[in-house]
Amino acid sequence: MTATPQTVKRIALRVNGRGVELEVAARRTLAELLREDLGLTGTKVGCNRAECGSCTVVVDGRAVFACTLLGVEMGGRDVTTVEGLAREGELHPLQAAFIEHDAVQCGICIPGILMALTALLDTTHDPTVDQVNHAVAGNLCRCGTYPNTVKATLAAARALRQRHADVTTAKEAR
Amino acid sequence: MSVVPRLLVEGEEPPRRDGPLRVIGRSVDRRDAREKVTGEARYSSDMKLAGMLHASILRSPHTHARIRRIDVTRAAALPGVHAILTKDTTEGWHTYWYMIAQPAFPEAIAYAGQEVAVVAAETLDAARAACQLIDVDYDVLPAAVTPAEAMKPGAPLVPVLDVERPREGNVQQPVYVRTRGDVERGLAEADVVSESRFSLPTQYHVDIQTRCCIAEWDGERLIVHEASQGVWNVKRELAKSLGLREDQVRVVVQYMGGGFGSKAGAQRVVHYTARLAMMTGRPVRLELTRPEEFVSHPRRYSADVTMRLGARRDGTLTAIDADVVLDIGSGSLYAGRYAITLHQISELYRCPNVRIRVTAVYTHTSPTGPQRGVLDPIATFCTEAAMDDLAARLRVDPLALRVRNYAEHFQAFEGGKDLPYSSKHLDRCMRAVAERIGWERRDRMRDASASGPRRRGIGMAAYCIERGGYAPFSAKADVVLRPDGTITLEAGVVEIGAGQITILPMIVAEELGVEPARVAIHHGDTDGTHYAPSSHASRVTSEMGPAALQAAALARARLFALVARELEVSPHDLVAADGVIHVRGAEMRAMSFERACALITDDEIRATGSRAPNPDDVVFRLFGAHAVEVEVDVDTGELRVLRIVASHDIGRPINPKLVESQQYGGAIMGLGYGLYEEAERDGRTGVLLNADVHQYRVPTSLETPAIEVDNIEGEDPYYPYSAKPVGEAPLVGVMPAVRNAVRHALGVGIDALPLTSARILDAIRARDGRHAG
């Protein structure tokens, strides 16, 4: 378009467990980087100003809004998106619980909600209802899935605790 | 006159299936849940086509203006710009919304933000930069941004977007009046007349996915990917607008991120996109930004309503008089009388004397249109709030007042015929919510010594809304069985998040005696399907359901004919269940469904089901009730909704967990409407000042109270398996129940929404002011 050169930077980061290297324009957001440069369209952009939460991803363990982070700041970081939750086709317990408890309607807010909750469950293994509600307080869902979001998350937390207990038991048995 | 209920399909009622229901009533997982939780689901905004251009809209900064001159020279010269649309290059071109014609680029501007030009360019940056380079000279004109201003003599006329709508000044014609009996006599006969005035606000849909469409044209066919609730509506509207044959237009929507009524017809933006694609020969993408969503797409009508209820001492209603002034913005009150009848005011209770007057006023604000529930939330709020006000005047229990005036059958307006409802269990709904909320605690709560600032209250509301299918009643579906055993349902509906593509295969599976997962569904595509209504107005279950059921039953009958020959029995002796077709009473004489399909000698068995029009000797309505417990802090005005109990008269749930999701979602959107969402408009320009989702507050998880649902089930054979629609009803009754609970807590009714703490404090002061001195 115009002749103004854009500042471009080469960065290396991890996305869903894989190393990625690419050239990023200075003003590109992390959401644009994920969706357009890497084709990971699971992350959505509903407002582009950190107000709806549909762009939530996990960066170095923390739930953040990808629409207001610059791609160039992501060098050396560990980014997880909704595409990184399932392992080799096997759904994460949170994803499975969302299906079972019908915490999904039109689905557009779901990737952001799942990532906000992943960050919660990674650090809080037995969350209260209050903690779940606060974890997704920044994720708007106009379909109104919130009551089932809570049920699904508590069920997923139970499943994860059970899985952890099974692994621990198995280790101890050896 | 006897009314024989029957499934509403064309031709013969389909052959009945045998035995108890095996699929209907199961909480089967959503068909597309996996794609949605893995991020695989591709919404229109996720799509990228090779060579795609990007479009941006230039909007009027003025509220009311006339475009004197547009000069696109500088914009067109910008590198990367491919095409520009303005009124100069599109004279006589109309867009269609619900088949209402609107000029695509009118010379007259009716609201700040109305489209003036659209640019298609290589990049979004280039398109936006080009918009900035378009020179527009406006004659700025005075504006009327409220109904009061717009109705004044000599008020500036709103250049309404809708073509050919009769008007007198800024008032749409006719002013709508519907009567029954003699309301003035009814009011005169009353021992008590209770008058209330209500102010109901606009509401914005706030779909989390903004409008986004991609159109491509190959010289012969237009293919459109949209965030739409109805592919067939869009197809027909685009074909008409662009002068194409319908078979030249294909619309595809597999996933869409929320509509709630705002996306059921073709948007103006999809017309622009399509035309740009045809002009440039390149795919064109147009996505609205979040502020543009607020500025331009149609929103719920706001209303000022005066209700007068007349009653005898014993609580029997003698008159209901409603005077409604609707602000319909700069147009797009969609087709027909239905949208402005608010007739449920006259139906919810038994009353011989009724008058409803509706004045629809144009203002220089953004267009209005249907939003989940349309006018039902307004009608229900006013009726139910007025009933509680009347109960207070009469010093009777509000539930008892409702029961006393229960309407057993449909009461027509003047010139109409009283008729039976297809089914009505509202009395059981009201009893259920009263029981669950602990209605008997109500009187004790008022008597309890009021120490401290917190007051609790319990309130309830009932609703009655018209849903159950609409003209043109042309829904058709095909069920196809192939020799390899595959089963496909071809239904042109769009999955909007309510579970359309989950329940329709369930219906087919029930009829064929197979597991739902075996039924594939080809949906959301105008290629390969018959006309289907948009997924709005709670109509898919009641219109597509029967069509899918009939198609499946007819396919089953033709398969049975093949199996019968093979097993040497009569087709009437066959039963399909659990994936097997067997002889009734002789289960061993059987074959699997796959084996039966292998008998198909032609390419396929294809059967079509068609919805028939609604009969005129019965009335279809949805009923339900809510009871709510609240706590109000009289010092701060803070309102906490502690608990919502809902009971909806749903017939039979096809999929209970999907029904529950609609009932939660509708209630939460209703709470948003009544408690949190408030459009702040500049009084002079009508511009929305809080055009973002931070300041326009839709409910989050933190605003969601405990919601319990205890539905009432019953037979209603007009619906598929008696399954009544559920998408909108749950929104309608929540707010009046909350308002009535607050009335109970405070002893005063609040008549303007949303129920902010400021309004609550004002009401308390007014109440105390009245009692002081």
Layout of secondary structure:
The complex is a heterodimer of chains A (174) and B (773).
Chain A: E1 8-15, E2 18-25, H1 30-37, E3 56-59, E4 62-65, E5 78-80, H2 93-100, H3 110-123, H4 129-135, H5 146-173
Parallel strand pairs in A: 1-5
Antiparallel strand pairs in A: 1-2, 3-4, 3-5
Chain B: H1 33-38, E1 53-59, E2 65-71, H2 73-77, E3 81-85, E4 94-97, E5 100-103, E6 108-109, E7 115-121, H3 124-132, E8 135-140, H4 147-151, E9 167-168, E10 171-172, E11 176-180, H5 183-189, E12 192-200, E13 212-217, E14 222-225, H6 231-242, E15 249-252, H7 268-280, E16 284-287, H8 290-296, E17 302-311, E18 317-327, H9 338-341, H10 344-347, E19 354-361, H11 376-394, H12 398-404, H13 426-437, H14 442-447, E20 454-465, E21 476-481, E22 487-491, H15 500-512, E23 519-523, H16 540-567, E24 574-577, E25 580-583, E26 586-592, H17 593-598, E27 605-610, E28 622-633, E29 639-651, H18 656-676, E30 706-709, E31 712-713, H19 729-732, H20 734-746, H21 757-771
Structure write-up:
The complex is a heterodimer of chains A (174) and B (773). In chain A, strand 3 and strand 4 (62-65) form a beta hairpin. A five-stranded mixed β-sheet of chain A has the order 2-1-5-3-4, sandwiched between helices. Chain A is built from five helices and five strands; from the N terminus they run ββαβββαααα. The longest helix of chain A has 28 residues, at 146-173. With 174 residues, chain A is an alpha+beta fold. The radius of gyration of chain A is 17 Å and the shape is globular. Chain A has helices at residues 30-37, 93-100, 110-123, 129-135, 146-173, and strands at 8-15, 18-25, 56-59, 62-65, 78-80. In chain B, helix 11 packs parallel to helix 20 (734-746) and helix 15 (500-512) runs parallel beside helix 16. A seven-stranded mixed β-sheet of chain B has the order 3-7-1-16-13-14-15. A five-stranded mixed β-sheet of chain B has the order 11-19-18-17-12, sandwiched between helices. In chain B, strands 20, 28, 29, 30 and 31 form a five-stranded mixed β-sheet that branches. Chain B is built from 21 helices and 31 strands. The radius of gyration of chain B is 28 Å and the shape is globular. In chain B, strand 28 (622-633) and strand 29 (639-651) form a beta hairpin. Chain B has 773 residues and is α+β, with helices and mostly antiparallel strands. The mean pLDDT of chain B is 94.
